[in-house]
Amino acid sequence: MSKVFFLFFLSFGLCGKMAWSQEILPVREAVDIALENNYNIRLAKNTQRIAKENNTYGTAGILPTVTGNLTQNNSIQNSNQIQNNGLERALDNARNNNLTYGVNIGWTVFDGLGMFARLDRLQELEKQGDLEMKRAVLTTVGDVITLYYTIVEQQNMLSALDSNIHISNERLRTAQNRFSIGKAAKLEVLNVQVNLNEDVSMRLRQAETVKNLKTSLNGLLARELDIDFSVDTLVTIDGALVYADLLDQADRFNPDLQLIVLNKRLAELDLKNIKAARYPVIRLNTGYNFSQSESSLGFVAQSNSRGFNYGVTAAVNIFDGFNQRRNERIAKIQIDNAGLLIEQQRLLVQTNLRTAYETYLTNLELVKLEEKNEDIARQNLNITLAKYTIGSISAVEFRDAQENFIAALSRFNTAQLQAKLSEVQLKELIGQIDI
Questions:
Q1: Degrees (nearest 5) of the Cα angle 427, 428, 434?
Q2: Who's near 411: CB < 8 A, 6+ residues apart?
Q3: InterPro entries recorded for this chain (predicted)?
Q4: Measured between alpha carbons, how far is 162 from 166 in angstroms, rounded to an integer?
Q5: Confidence class of residue 7 from pLDDT cuts 50, 70 and 90?
Q6: How remote is the C-alpha of 88 from its chain's centroid?
Q7: How high is the pLDDT of residue 9?
Q8: Which residues of 316-343 are buried (b: 16+ CB within 10 A; e: fewer)?
């Protein structure tokens, strides 16, 4: 009996040794790599930086503009002139040069407060970039954790199949021994061999699944696809989540809801900017310019001038075909739509949170149930293996116990995975994923 238990637990020990022989990639390290390398996050970072760069007084139109100007015109002409006194003058290849250069300053000092509305909008757009970045991080972290624990589930199944193969090999050895001493028919040996081949085939498929999942995770981490690693098979599930707390946090921190609330604020600023067009635009202008001209034929052969120029420009929209009123009505409708979208998104978040929480509670109960079933199936397999070794049960009965154990282990792994994914989904909905 002790030999049976030794062989059974040795098989798990061998599988554990194979798993730990590779470099362990903890889930936190996988998340850190994704935060640094993932393309979606890097793109979101660049978008965030663009919004931050645009949030300036100059972009809003509050600061003055300074321009340097230089204009030079040259001409070569054949000229004929008849003056008022009847004198005729002619010159071939007459050269005329005109050079003007200087600095001009323009400053819009009033535009119906539209410039301040634009500044507020740029600030809100920077906040939008921060929220988009947060959403990209949450989505990527959720994807990494989901894929990581999917690998954990499939790796555990691979280890179980390795153990199953060890047990089937022991069955085959026992069947061959029994056949050699005349206590079993050749048919029993063949059936056990078929079962072993079936187990090896399942193991090959499972190994392919694990390898493909690891490739997918490497792709999500934006690193070399052929990097091999092992995962930490310990699954820790947060079983203390409270619905009321989750609901409050989702209303305050859910990134999708925050973005829609921000969109309403942007719509209100757009209306403010549109209303600014009802007021006059006042612009101050000044500059210092130099001018020089030369003429081969004319009353003035050469002239130079320099000096300041200054003035004010004012413009007001008197009539634009009722477009101002139309634009304002449309902006108000967009504000109403933004309010409706907020209520719609809040209801959607609450609905998703409620269903995810119910699934979470169910999965927690399933983990407890399947853990008990897995323990019962393990005990049953040990007892069946002992009985099969001494020849008190048939190979078919032992195979049933073996398959029941693998099925129970598979359900337990699946229950753990689904519970962990439910936890991750809830924390993603409230905008706060911790590891």
A1: 55
A2: 370, 373, 374
A3: OMP_efflux, TolC-like
A4: 6
A5: very low
A6: 82
A7: 43
A8: eeeeeeeeeeebeeebeebbeebeebee
Distance CA 163, CA 168 (A): 9
- According to CATH, the superfamily of the domain at 2-63+114-277+320-429 is Outer membrane efflux proteins (OEP) (1.20.1600.10)
Distance CA 150, CA 414 (A): 9
The answer to whether 389 and 1 are in contact (CB under 8 A) is no
C-alpha 335: how far from chain center: 28
411-424, pLDDT tens digit by residue? 999 999 999 999 99
Tokens 């624990």, residue? 149
Which tokens is 73 given? 């015109």
**CA dihedral sign, ordered 321, 324, 325, 327:** positive
Locus of tokens 């009965």: 397
Domains of the chain, residue spans: 2-63+114-277+320-429
pLDDT above 90 covers a percentage of the chain that reads: 69
Computed from CA positions of residues 111, 115, 121, 125, in that sequence, does the dihedral angle turn out positive or negative?
positive
